[in-house]
Amino acid sequence: MTADLKHTLPGAIAIVVLALVPLLPVPPFWITLLNNIGLASLVAIGLVLLTGVGGMTSFGQAAFCGFGAYTTAVLTTAYGFSPWATLPLSLIAGAATALPLGLITVRLSGHFLPLGTIAWGLALYYLFGQVELVGRYDGISGIPPLELAGHRFLSGQSIYYVIWFFVIATAIGARNLLDSRVGRGIRALRGGGQVAEAFGVDIVRAKLTVFILAGIVAALSGWLYAHMQRSVNPTPFGLNMGIEYLLMAVVGGAGHVWGAIFGAGVVLILKDLLQRFLPDLIGSSINFEMIVFGALLVTILQFARDGLWPLVLKFAAKRPTRQPAAAGSLPRRTMPAVGTPLLRIDMARKAFGGLVAVNDVSFEIKAGQIAGLIGPNGAGKSTTFNLITGMLSLTSGSVFYGGEKLSGMSPRRIAKHGIARTFQHAKILPTMSVLENVTLGAHLRGSAGVFKSFLHLERQEEATLLAEAARQLERVGLGANMHRPAGDLALGQIRILEIARALCLDPTILLLDEPAAGLRHAEKQELSALLRKLKEEGVSVLLVEHDMGFVMGLVDHLVVLDFGTLIAEGKPAEVRQHPAVIAAYLGEVAA
Q: CA–CA separation, 225 vs 133, rounded Å?
């Protein structure tokens, strides 16, 4: 049996079992429970995208269910709309609500983010109870059932297939999205966002995208709920349900789409069993089941912090790795003529309050040149890198690239010019494969958006991006490791991975922050050979490095900083004899 078949077989069996359940002589309650699991799964899938992947905790998703439910309830009962005609309008209502809330919420961080979602979740719940149009706390009844080809979905058994069709389709679409260029940008948000931003991901847009998507799938759940129950009121759309939905995503496995469905099943089945059997076991009708329910969930999270779905995956067939398919090559950037001025830093200054980290520094890098930026610890080298790439804003001064002023541009716009970088403290996404980490560097070289990715219509572009990443990994000697989780690599390999990722941008200039740190002597020689080869291809390099033997034998030009001030500049042989440089490294007595 092939690996692909082994991987798809369990999913196919699960779908067949789901399809057969209503045809079996099972109690009607089972169907009702499975319908509720399906509705909750939709919200939990949105939370996997938002919280588990995007890193934004939300307690207010139940409110978006309310917008989907109330939109179809009002339009079908008061204005005579067909239920199917209200589906796109309910999804638009969810998106339209998520957009302004998202613009506010995604800019929050730390504990302010979940507190913000609690605030608007409560506000929207009370809004539903006060608006006359939606029936206040009494709600709306008499909602017509769904109808297709003359068949009215009046029973739980009939609407069961509609609910689970949407659940499976949404789950597949979400998986497609996460395995795409857009999805990599979203997944990179959990790494803090700096890496994603450095390679062209619009951080605010990525967060807003996933926030709106989570709102849309929650509205879909609300739409289905309204036509299943045929009445709505504010009770299912309050903060309590918002907390419960988040628990489902976390218990299942917040980083796994299929885990959302599993988590919804675990939570709702466990809750029902406790409510039905616990009073008889303890001989009391007091609401102890919620206490036991909470304790059990805490226990699960204590022993399976990544959720239960990863435990299930251990017993399932391993998912086949994504082999880069044969694909066309990406267009290449035209390199500037060797020797022409490329990057110029003019009186750059960065002050953090009273501390001046970079003090009116000026220097220039020419095309086709390998330049070194050296100095003792705390000299301002990495800060200078951050000023060039837009990670930090200048207090004063300017940065120019090919005569164009970069100062004030976002890191994304600067990356578009062909300026790629690595980081002093290696920034990788440890749970993603080496190949996916490197493919993130090619983000700006693709164009497929959310819609194409969700429907998996970007296959050709995705294959091209993956092939480019594989080529760069082979180029730096990491081809054999491309399918390993990046977190399994040694530090030296991670440094090389960062260079491969930077090369995926097709840069004109590489900014390498301590690239030789953690490398053995032979690996440093290989890195040196790679950088010389890049120079021959027209790529300029500016590197920060503490290994003076490595630097002196490689660079054409040296810039030396000390306490944020430029103290020497020129050819390596000249700079190493400069009295100020000797004093900075060895002290005044040695000088």
A: 19
Could you tell me if 196 and 203 are in contact, meaning their C-beta atoms sit under 8 angstroms apart? yes
Q: Produce one character per residue of 173-183: b if its CB has 16 or more CB atoms within 10 Å, e if not.
A: bbbbbbbbbbb
Residue 509, φ and ψ in degrees, nearest 5: -140, 135
Per-residue pLDDT at 8: 54
Burial of 32 (0-12, 13-18, 19+ CB in 10 A): middle
Q: What is the mean pLDDT of each run of 10 residues along the chain (591 residues)?
A: 48 75 84 94 94 87 94 94 95 95 84 86 88 88 90 88 95 93 89 84 91 96 95 91 90 88 91 80 69 76 80 71 68 89 93 90 93 88 92 93 90 92 87 92 91 91 93 91 91 90 94 87 88 91 88 90 90 86 63 38
| Phi, psi (deg, nearest 5) at residue 426 | -50, 130
DSSP 27: -
| DSSP SS3 for 555 | coil
Q: Using an 8 Å Cβ cutoff, are 462 and 436 in contact? A: no
Cα–Cα separations (whole angstroms), residue 209 to 109, 186, 459: 17, 9, 21
State both tokens at 253: 């496995």
Helices 61-78 and 203-229, axial angle in degrees (round to 10): 50
Q: Running DSSP on this structure, what letter comes out for residue 417?
A: T
> Collapsing DSSP states into helix, strand and coil, what is residue 320?
coil
pLDDT of residue 6: 46
Structure confidence by residue, pLDDT tens digits, 70-129:
999 999 999 989 999 999 999 999 999 999 999 988 888 778 888 888 888 888 888 888
Instruction: Give the per-residue pLDDT at 325.
Output: 62
Question: Six-digit token pair at 53?
Answer: 């992947």
Residues listed for the chain: 591
The residues pairing with 349 across neighbouring beta strands, listed in sequence order, are: 396
Distance from C-alpha of 365 to C-alpha of 151, rounded to nearest angstrom: 72
Rounded to whole angstroms, how far apart are CA atoms 224 and 216? 13
Q: In terms of DSSP H, where are the helices of 48-155?
A: 61-78, 83-105, 112-130
Helix (H) or strand (E) holding 239, with range, is helix 239-252
The mean predicted confidence, pLDDT, of the chain is 87
How far apart are the C-alpha atoms of 246 and 254, rounded to whole Å?
A: 9
CA distances from 55 to 48, 165, 187, 205, 518 (A): 9, 28, 8, 14, 30
Per-residue tokens: 291: 């206490």
Residue (of 247, 295, 243) closest to 267 by Cα position: 247
d(CA 223, CA 205): 27
Q: Give the closest residue to 366 by CA, choosing from 556, 566, 561.
A: 556
pTM value is 0.88
Cβ-Cβ contacts under 8 Å for 49 (sequence gap 6 or more): 174, 177, 178, 186, 210, 213, 214, 257
Q: Which DSSP category does 369 fall into?
A: -
**Structure-block tokens of residue 44:** 């939990």
Q: What is the 8-class DSSP label of residue 433?
A: B
